[in-house]
Amino acid sequence: MRFRSLLLAGLVAPALNACAGPMAGSGPSAARGPGGAAITAGDLRRDLFFLASDSMRGRRGATDDELRASMWLAAQAQAMGLQPAGDDGTFFQFFPVRRFRMSETSTVTLGGRTLRLWEDAVVMAPVDARVDAPVMSGDAPLAAGAASDRAVVARLRPPATQTPRWVSLWSWRQTSGAVNAQRTALTPASPSALVFVADSVGLLAFENLIKSAREGRYLLDTLGVNPRANIPPVPVILVRPEVVAGLDLSTARLTADLRTESFIYPSVNVVARVPGTDPALRGEHVLFSGHQDHDGVNRPVNGDSIWNGADDNATVSVALLAIGRAFAREPGRRSALFVWHGSEERGLLGSYWYARTPTIPRSGIVAVLNADMIGRNSPDSAALLGVTAPHRNSQALVNMALAANPGFALDSTWDAPTHPEGWYFRSDHLPYARVGIPAIFFTTLLHADYHTPEDEPERIDIAKLERMTRWMYATGWSVANAAARPALDPQPAAPNR
């Protein structure tokens, strides 16, 4: 198997062992740190164009493409003098990922017509079920128990709370929200299955729904995560309108044989370290965080099937390399720890794994400086999340980041708990914040190429990437050399959503 050969190569290869409105900080006069000259646009461009190239095949989490990217990152870290800080004296922390999905042998028949799974019909969540039941309409309200031993067919209706059209993956979110709202409303009727007929928005979302539902769920069940948690008790199936055209609900039946299957894949965090210079403080670490994976080789768009993930998140992966060069040139009093997380796109899996099972004592992580997508949009705009309540858990860390801001106008609106994107909850700082470690999140926010094959290295603003990298470095330098570690806010709320 290629997985096994790559894992063994990685373990034994000698080269790899051993604001409601804008706000700004103190501007260009903020301390930048003595190693900042090691952060150059040339290095960032070179590394970015390699890591986000077609040859890296989009670095899909829990695949051999992600492992190839991981070995390249580890080799760069070693070449610049960073120490391995993973397991067993390596740069790697491997972890098992369980994929839980519908078996391709599953079948669905409605009104005597066999539906093509993932073409005519989408099973919204992996579930084991056998159904053979007459159907009835759910377009009108149903009393409790009214659908017992029946399958309910209903046309999808927009949810009461609609997703704004400008939100990323709008049609997918709108449709998922509609399905969940109607499922909740119809569950008291005790149906044996729910079949929803896609509306016009659902048809727009169908390709994304097929992709996500067919792929299934990725989980860390070895950390006690139940792969069957949050799965509806009855099958929920979304179908195209033509499936029910001419269907006589008074005589039709739904038969379904739905089966799940699961697999274990390896994924990996790359972990490197620059020891601090102060014997009393080098056991404390400022953790620089980013994810290395993206969406890999995926459905083609305009003939392009490689979803390169240049901004998401090769920009941060190469920024961490540049910050590593800076700390290797001039270490801080505290140690600098660099974690390139694996399988973030599968559900923040690498950061959840590291936050729960770090390779250094968790008490030795004094702050997490995470970033995700730092190379696009207006040259002078950015955002810092984890700044406002209830997301903020360390005012002291926030103050250090704001003081180091080189002059970006910061959009604080994305940090609001009511923001429809929920951007705070979608990157690798979150697992650390949830275990009580001071954490902030640097980003230049979403753009039209987000999660498309158009997220190419040629579209990255290298000058902006350099400034964002220097901002992260300067913040980390402040943390590494402060007299005291950043204090947690009194009784900070654990972020939950």
Helix count from the secondary structure assignment: 10
User: What is the number of domains?
Assistant: 2
The ordered string of helix (H) and strand (E) elements is HHHEEEEEEEHEHEEEEEEEHEHEEHEHEH
**Could you estimate the helical fraction of the residues in percent?**
25-40%
CATH topology of the largest domain: Aminopeptidase
CATH superfamily heading of the largest domain: Zn peptidases
Number of strands: 20
Brief rundown of the structure:
This protein has 497 residues and is α/β, with parallel strands linked by helices.
Write a concise keyword list for the protein shown above.
eight-stranded mixed β-sheet, alpha/beta, elongated, 10 helices, Glucose Oxidase, domain 1, ten-stranded mixed β-sheet, Aminopeptidase, 497 residues
SSE order and pairing:
Elements: H1 2-12, H2 41-51, H3 64-79, E1 83-84, E2 92-102, E3 107-110, E4 113-115, E5 121-123, E6 129-137, E7 151-155, H4 170-186, E8 193-197, H5 200-215, E9 217-219, E10 236-239, E11 253-258, E12 260-274, E13 285-291, E14 296-301, E15 304-307, H6 310-329, E16 335-341, H7 349-356, E17 365-371, E18 381-385, H8 395-404, E19 409-410, H9 430-434, E20 439-443, H10 462-481
Parallel strand pairs: 6-7, 7-8, 8-10, 13-16, 13-17, 17-20, 18-19
Antiparallel strand pairs: 1-12, 2-9, 2-12, 3-4, 3-11, 5-10, 6-11, 12-16, 14-15, 18-20
